[in-house]
Each structure stands twice: as C-alpha cells, then as structure tokens.
Amino acid sequence: MPSSPSALIPLLTTTASLSFTIAEFIFISPLVRAKSIPPESTSAFWDYVLRPGLAPVVVYNGTSTAGAILSRKLPQDSFGRTLVGWGTLAAFAHFAFGYNIARVIESMIYKPATAREGQKRWLKIHALRTLTTDIPAFACFLAAVYCGV
Questions:
Q1: Whole-angstrom distance, CA of residue 57 vs CA of residue 88
Q2: pLDDT at 62
Q3: Are the CB atoms for 92 and 62 separated by under 8 Å?
Q4: Total domains, the chain
Q5: Tens-place pLDDT, residues 26-71
Q6: Which residue segment(s) compose the domain that 21 sits in?
Q7: What are the helix and strand counts (H, E) for the chain?
Q8: Which has the higher per-residue pLDDT, 127 or 6?
Q9: Nearest by Cα to 134 from 87, 70, 102
Q10: What pLDDT is recorded for position 121?
C-alpha cells in the first residue's frame, strides 16, 4: 500500500491513459479494416474527434509527469524513487511522438484520398508509442506503488 495518496496519482493517470489507448485501437482499427468506409468519412472523423480527443491525452500524460514531484520527496537512493523517475520519463516520452502523429492526422484531414493509408501509419505509430511509453510508465508506477512508495 502506498505511503502517500499522492503516489496513486501517477498510477491512476497512467491507467487511464493506457485504457484510452486500448480503446483507440478498438474503435479506430475498423476505419482501416472496413473497406466500405470511404476515405472521406475517415477524414471527417479525424477532423471532428481531434480536439476533444487531444484533451485526455494531454491531461493523463501531463498529470503522470507530475510523478517527478513525487519522486523528489522520496529518499534519493530508494528503488521507489527510481521507479517513479522512470515512469515519469516514460509518461513524458509519450509527447515525443506528437509531431509525427500530428503530421499523419493533418494529412488525413486535408487529403481525404490518403486517409486509409494515413490511418494505417497512425496505428503503427500508436502501437509503437504504446509499447515504448504507455506500458512502461504504467508498469513503473504500478511497481512503485507495490513497493510502498
């Protein structure tokens, strides 16, 4: 059990972020698989969902990076501090993919004919980002809470 309720905040926000990520795979993958969906519909979907969909990403991962504040309160040589530090770094690294994701989405919105290929690229980048940032951040924060941070 965590020694501080604030230790749960990064774990809860990375859990929310990971849940959101998995939901995106579930609900966006059909846009590529269903050949009956015209590229213009995919383009319109991204144009409509981009702004409201961006808010949870920024809030969840931004709040997770607040783990850095928590790690400063932990003993310098503690394993919990190391875990929280790595979790914070992984959560922050999520934003490193922003430029490439934005370019792909921009292309899908403004060039509807390329939307299906853009969607495939988005899913690949999204999978790579999930494997390299979201899952490691979650694992680090979970382990930190398990260790009693």
A1: 15
A2: 82
A3: no
A4: 1
A5: 998 888 888 888 888 989 999 998 888 888 888 888 888 776 676 7
A6: 5-146
A7: 8, 0
A8: 127
A9: 87
A10: 96
